[in-house]
Amino acid sequence: MKEILMARQWPTYVVCGLIVQMLAGCSDEPASNNAAAPTVREERRAASNADAKLILAFGDSLYAGYGVAQNESFPHELEKTLRAKGGAVEVRNAGVSGETTQGGLQRLAFTLDGLPRKPDLVLLGLGGNDMLRGLDPAESEKNLRAMLDILAERKLPVVLTGMLAAPNMGEAYAARFNAIYPALARDYRVPLYPFFLDGVIGDPKYMQPDSIHPNPAGVDVIVGKVAPLVLDNLASPK
């Protein structure tokens, strides 16, 4: 399976950090430490972007910007890149560090209802913390399907960003977990970016010392890979 082969891109030294991360940055860290908090400047920017297309980045620490400044986070850099490509967009950071698929399901409707208007696109990136904690992939898939059902009911276009199991989870677990995202993309007919950390995981110049979260240079690499997919689906949502 292609996804299992990609999972082997996780370096050996990442495995050593997994347990630490389950108790630190990728665990139950309060959202207030890593989620984007509204500021007067952001509110003014939102007002000036009333005509821009609104993208909701709904995920975990990889979206929230764990370990980097908010102006270096994935949503911020994605907005900057899309604007440089000529897109009039606003990307809202709805990432929460430590978020599981269950937590995401519990806050999705509330988050959508709190937006100033209906988003033109939702980026959905959850499941990594489920994997790090060894949660049952069947439950992760069930939660992700429930979220996609909510988004479908609201007629919101989605781009799904996937995750792959770390090698220490074992081949049996990886086979079940890695199959989740391709199945969701197929069943819900949504675009899939298969592995959010593709091109950066295992390379110290792109990763923070925890070997799990990208540093600003790594975020730039990820944005460069994801931005074309986002732009395509803003232009002609599926």
Helix content: 40-55%
**Main sheet attributes: strand count, strand direction, barrel closure:** 5 strands, parallel
Identify the quaternary structure here: single chain
| Main β-sheet, spatial strand arrangement | 2-1-3-4-5
- State the order of secondary-structure elements, H for helix, E for strand: HHHEHHEHEHHEHHEH
Give the CA-based shape: globular
Strand content: 5-15%
Distance between the termini: 26 Å
Radius of gyration: 17 Å
Derived structural class? alpha/beta
- How many DSSP-defined strands? 5
Number of helices: 11
Flag low-confidence runs.
1-7, 12-41
Descriptive account of the structure:
The chain has 238 residues and is of the alpha/beta class. Helix content is 47%, strand content 11%. It has eleven helices and five strands. A five-stranded parallel β-sheet has the order 2-1-3-4-5, sandwiched between helices. The protein starts with a helix and ends with a helix.
